[in-house]
């Protein structure tokens, strides 16, 4: 019998606005990930035959609402009092989040398990500047050149002194996917883009533009079947919009991504090299749930090295199952398909990574 066969699962969605952290606020996702939360809850209930607790007794499969509980203290309390033994944290976590800070949940630290990352780690590692600087200390990971820019004052003197390589990428310190990410081809275009970011991100990051092939690697945490961090099959990205992979809320990733073939993996050792580096990063970050790391070659030469340029502590987890969701597989679900896993199989594997709440609360960054 599966160790999760008797689990009662409740999925949480993002109802809380992330706080200001270091003067920067990560923008809340419209809908709060209820779309992927509904996918998870529906498939666990209807395809995995698990007991899934929902706020609505009979949520409508074609609608996103009614499947998930808000990630407020009241919402989490409601889920637990209805019998949830497992909370799927399909939301953005941080140090003051109820899963970390609620005194009410203290008594459930050993009784309730959570699918998700430790909140204290997420708060630290959602800061792209912090995590990049920490990972650079370990010389075995290849990363692009980066610059951190404060927009509290006029950034132009700093920018002019850096001899920046154009084109260059400007992005928020605490971003979500490719939103706010732009390739800038001139000083004027860069300055205008930074001004547009300044309202929500007074500190931004500039990054060397990587012009080669882009791909993404999902790294799974240690589990009962594989007791180490391990990379799932590489998924390559194409059909970029002005040099950037479009946000998945605008263009479904199934239309611009595909799992790389075993033949291509064997013919080019750079994929394996990048996958091993991604595993190393996930281990350094002490991840307890999947981490998705975006990689891109420095240039378009065949066999060019990959650099790791973006680390996502909460990969999108949409997938097929509900009516009208046939083309909504996430990058992680596509990677799982490369292993022969269906979306229900992926969710069952992820449920098996659930940790006791108390374990997640105690984890602190070691980097």
Q: How does this structure look, described?
A:
There is one protein chain. This protein is α+β, with helices and mostly antiparallel strands. It has helices spanning 34-46, 73-81, 98-101, 119-125, 128-136, 156-161, 187-197, 262-267, 269-284, 331-337, 343-351, 357-362; strands at residues 8-13, 51-52, 69-70, 86-89, 113-115, 146-150, 168-172, 182-184, 203-208, 214-220, 230-231, 235-237, 257-259, 291-297, 306-312, 355-356. The strands form 3 sheets. Strands 1, 2, 3, 4, 5 and 16 form a 6-stranded mixed sheet that branches. Strands 10, 11, 12, 13, 14 and 15 form a 6-stranded antiparallel sheet that branches. A hairpin with an 8-residue loop joins strand 14 and strand 15 (306-312). The mean pLDDT is 94.
